[in-house]
Design brief:
The protein is about 40% helix and about 25% strand. The protein has about 90 residues and is an alpha+beta fold. It has one domain: Alpha-Beta Complex (Actin, Chain A, domain 4), CATH 3.90.640. The protein has a two-stranded antiparallel ribbon.
């Protein structure tokens, strides 16, 4: 849910109730997450997904300059970081 919200917002709240309990009762996680922090956490994964794309272009004898349009499919492609990198 946070990932979806951060595709269109700069910040969201992660709220996970009852993640544990101790003698004083249940504990909940309530944490603000910014898009910048989220992107820093997933940036390496995004970069790693670009390697197969580069290989496919090379195997096809193409380069990025020969591509006019790209169709992005799937939930992750709504992330601004993914769109920027592609």
């Amino acid at each position: 849910k946070a990932k979806i919200e951060l595709s269109s917002s700069q910040q969201t709240e992660v709220n996970l109730p009852y993640i544990t309990a101790d003698a004083s009762g249940p504990k909940h996680l309530v944490q603000k997450l910014t898009r910048a922090k989220f992107e820093s956490l997933v940036e390496e994964l995004v970069e790693n997904t670009l390697a197969p794309v580069k290989i496919a272009l090379k195997d096809a004898g193409l380069d990025t300059g020969s591509i006019d349009d790209v169709i992005l499919v799937g939930g992750q492609t709504r992330m601004p970081l993914v769109q920027q990198k592609v």
